[in-house]
Design a protein that fits this description.
alpha+beta, Thiol Ester Dehydrase, Chain A, 2 domains
């Protein structure tokens, strides 16, 4: 059946997810953390307690979404539009959460449908909320039922140089490491599959680029302290190729910041970024 606009407000079945120290370490290496970030990439370094990158929330969170209630769409024509996280506490190096997801919006863009989901996760050990994720999916070919188009506001970035710019060069094998955190889509590893999608070579996972961007925000605005990292939301605008150099630009206003991520050609690959920290 097609997309069901009446599914807005539907909730999914509570879902549990466990992780351990190795999962957190693998994710950190997958988004480019290295020897100068040992708190995130090792668990047994002298006088350093293991910490978890806040963007690891996208790996463990997001569960319980009511996909069985929204109708159907062609997954080959679906792209990840936006991603957001909100953290209520620091993510522990190992633990278990229970997540409940909800369909919060379905918009009719004419040539496509936009699906929005939120998922709130509770730390099973403490019974307290740990994190919330927000995901927007852009499903081509599924619009046209006459529904509302949804909001169209865009962030206006300051007409001045960014307050901070951080540059990271991705590895040629970056996607091969990141995929071990769960997303085994061959678009990111198989040259023949990537060619069918119109790419000269496999592309980097959007959430890997997002995690790299999160590292820049963490180290620059939070002094590398995950407890100060509170919320991050942005839009995916262009694929990244492993080996690309990324520049994360930040404009700061108090405990809020706007950000964009660009590749070496000046193309914006992550846009409409909003960040909250303490």
């Amino acid at each position: 059946m097609p997309i069901n606009p009446e599914a807005v407000g539907a909730k999914g079945t509570p879902t549990r997810r466990k992780w351990d120290s190795k999962d957190a370490l693998l994710y950190a290496v997958g988004v480019g953390a290295g020897t100068d970030e040992l708190a995130f990439t090792t668990e047994n370094t002298k006088d350093i307690e293991q910490k978890v990158l806040p963007t690891f929330a996208v790996i463990i969170g997001g569960g319980g979404a009511p996909f069985d209630k929204i109708g159907s769409f062609n997954p080959m024509l679906m792209v990840h539009g936006e991603q957001g996280i909100e953290l209520f506490d620091e993510i522990p190096a190992e633990g278990e959460i229970e997540s409940v997801g909800e369909c919060t919006a379905i918009w009719d863009k004419g040539s496509a449908a936009v699906l929005e989901f939120e998922s709130t996760a509770t730390n099973v050990a403490t019974g307290k909320p740990l994190l919330k994720t927000r995901t927007m999916l852009f499903c081509r070919g599924e619009g046209g039922w006459g529904g509302e188009r949804g909001p169209s506001e865009k962030i206006e970035f300051p007409d001045r140089a960014p307050d901070h710019s951080v540059e990271y060069t991705t590895r040629e094998d970056q996607a091969l490491t990141y995929r071990l955190s769960g997303d085994r889509n061959p678009l990111h590893s198989d040259p023949s599959f990537a060619a069918v999608g119109g790419f000269d070579k496999p592309i980097l996972h959007g959430l890997c680029t997002w995690g790299i961007t999160g590292r820049a925000l963490l180290h620059t605005l939070c002094d590398s302290d995950p407890s100060r990292f509170k919320a991050m939301n942005s839009r995916f605008s262009k694929p990244v190729i492993p080996g690309d150099t990324l520049t994360i630009n930040m404009w700061v206003d108090g405990q809020q910041a706007l950000f964009q991520t660009l590749n070496q050609n000046g193309d914006v690959v992550i846009d409409q970024g909003q960040f909250t920290f303490i």
